[in-house]
Amino acid sequence: MLDEINTNGIESSPDSYFSGITVTDTSLPHADYGTGTITVGGQTANVYTWKDRTSDAVVAVVTVPNVGALAFSGGTAPLSNLPTGTYTYVGTEVVSPRLNLSPVVGTFSMTADFTNKLASYSGVTANTTMVVNNMAINTSTGDFAGSNGTFTYNNNSQSATLYGSFSGDGATGVAGVYHTNDAAGTYAGGFIGHKQ
Predict the structure, then answer these.
(1) Number of H helices and number of E strands within the chain?
(2) 14 φ/ψ angles, rounded to the nearest 5 degrees
(3) Helix (H, G, I), strand (E, B) or coil at 95
(4) How far apart are CA 169 and CA 27, in angstroms?
(5) Degrees (nearest 5) of the Cα angle 65, 26, 1?
(6) Residue 133 DSSP SS3
(7) Domains of the chain, with CATH numbers?
(8) Phi/psi of residue 87, nearest 5 degrees
(9) What local confidence, expressed as pLDDT, does residue 11 receive?
(10) Which of 9, 19, 172, 190 allows an S-S link to 59, with CB 3.0 to 4.6 Å?
(11) In 3D, which of 190, 175, 193 has the Cα closest to residue 4?
């Protein structure tokens, strides 16, 4: 089962938890993809990371064969000097069924209106879309969330919840996770990006 957390506010990013990550793909529009392994308590886990090239944001998926998986995202730079006005963020989105880990990578665009404290997110992969509008931005923490999202897989839509945070001086980075709202939480995703 794939679970997700957003690690913004922690003083280190997901990629700093792992050593031996090898970048294997630099052809994605906004991020570099890397893989590696970790061993904890004698159990080996596979690690997959996507690191935004412009900001400090990282999304990672850790899988333990026949046990489960965990996806998380975050940025290393503390949030400071939250701007006013409206900005566009772009980046990488990673989506997977929770019980059958097979990540699909796509892109997202997000609008953040810091003056009115609202954000909207739109992500797309080859066979999924995720849209959440009118998420409240907490200007003290840089966090935002919305449970009014719509996740669509092969033209089948269901409600979804998204959690995210801005990071860096002037909110240069953004990262977050989301899941569908069905009882099983069938799909989960993570995203990382930067301010244009």
Answers:
(1) 0, 14
(2) -55, -35
(3) strand
(4) 27
(5) 20
(6) strand
(7) 2-74 (no CATH), 86-195 (2.40.160.90)
(8) -135, 155
(9) 36
(10) 190
(11) 190
What b/e string do you get for 154-193 counting C-beta neighbours within 10 Å, with b at 16 or more?
eeeeeebbbbbbbbbeebbbbbbbbbbeeeebbbbbbbbb
Lookup result for tokens 């990013």: 13
pTM here is: 0.86
Question: Does 99 or 43 have the greater pLDDT score?
Answer: 43
Q: Which amino acid is at 20?
A: G
State the Cα–Cα distance between residues 50 and 103, nearest whole angstrom. Answer: 11
In which residue are the tokens 């992969």 written? 125
Per-residue exposure over 2-22, b if at least 16 CB sit within 10 Å of its own CB, e if not: bebebbbeeeebbbebbeebe
Q: Residue 92 pLDDT > 70, yes or no? A: yes
Which pair of structure tokens corresponds to residue 90?
A: 């772009």
- What's the rounded Cα separation, in Å, for the pair 53 and 30? 6
- Residue 109 has a CB neighbour count (10 Å cut-off) of 16
